[in-house]
Amino acid sequence: MDEDEKQFFAEGNVDIPTRLLRNYHQIGLSNEDLIVVIQLFAFSREGIKLPSSELISARTNFSQNSIQRILEKLLKHKFISFSMNNDAYDLSGLIEKLVGGGRVDPNSLSADKSLSQLGTQKRLYQTFQREFGRMLTPMELQTISEWLKKDQFSPDLVVTALNQAVNAQILNLRYIEKILLNWKHNNVQTKEQAEADNLQHRQRYSGDSFEGKQEFKRKPSSSSGSENIKIPLKKIGEEKNL
Questions:
Q1: What is the pLDDT of residue 110?
Q2: Angle between helices 138-149 and 64-76 in degrees, nearest 10
Q3: pLDDT of residue 14
Q4: What whole-number distance in Å separates Cα of residue 130 and Cα of residue 141?
Q5: Contact status, residue 198 vs residue 164, Cβ threshold 8 Å
Q6: With pLDDT > 90 as the criterion, what percentage of the chain qualifies?
Q7: For residues 155 and 126, what is the distance between their CA atoms, to the nearest angstrom?
Q8: pLDDT one-digit tens code per residue, 24-73
Q9: What segment(s) does the record annotate as region Disordered (predicted)?
């Protein structure tokens, strides 16, 4: 046995459920979805519990954008999920669908949104990637998707929050989410309302700063010689008489 053969057997095997290979179409997975799922099994076998889209793309002929789209679909329809600590992909949802025979309507995987909605969401992802200067992680894609679907934030409002984060030079989703939740608390629902709220906040802050400066100017300095200091005068020997 030569060295290549030894290396081949030393790398080990990846256990793929036979039922997955036999029934993946029945549970709503496409051929491309299956390849990504198999790669997730393989990475897990190698100890890489949360592979990036870049890593998965390097092992397939899919672009990173395609990998992200597939991962988003798998997450959305609960084939996979994130572990409790968000440090690994959990494939138990896939197993449950295979064991329980849960069938997903193929139409719901591709036609649950209008083409315009799909295009809007894709452009939103691209905007974030351009501002962040990198590809978004699957977890970040899921977060942005939940802002739109679960929290019902409009794409324009999300972009406005992103722009505010860019201006503050704080490029992370947690900061952007705080902005969005603050607007939600203040019943801000449109881009125009958000810009007005932001302007009002800046004016309030500027006003407070101006008042503080004025108060500081009015406060006399302890070292100033402009005030007359009165010193009580006593005659010599007066204290003795007291």
A1: 39
A2: 50
A3: 77
A4: 14
A5: yes
A6: 27
A7: 12
A8: 999 999 999 999 999 999 998 888 988 888 899 999 999 988 998 899 88
A9: 195-242
Q: Torsion over CA of 213, 219, 222 and 224, rounded to 10 degrees?
A: 90
Domain boundaries, the chain: 10-110, 115-218
CA–CA dist 229, 92 (Å, integer)? 82
Cα separations in angstroms, 195 against 132, 144, 156: 22, 21, 11
Angle between helix 31-45 and helix 64-76 axes, rounded to 10 deg: 90
Domain 115-218 fold: Arc Repressor Mutant, subunit A (1.10.10)
Q: At what angle do helices 155-168 and 115-132 cross, to 10 degrees?
A: 0
10-110 and 115-218 have identical folds: yes
Look at domain 10-110 and name its CATH class. Answer: mainly alpha
The structure tokens listed for 148 are 């739109």
Q: Does the pTM of the predicted model rise above 0.70?
A: no
* DSSP label of 133: T
Cβ atoms of 40 and 91 within 8 Å: the answer is: yes
Q: Which two tokens stand for residue 173?
A: 């989703």
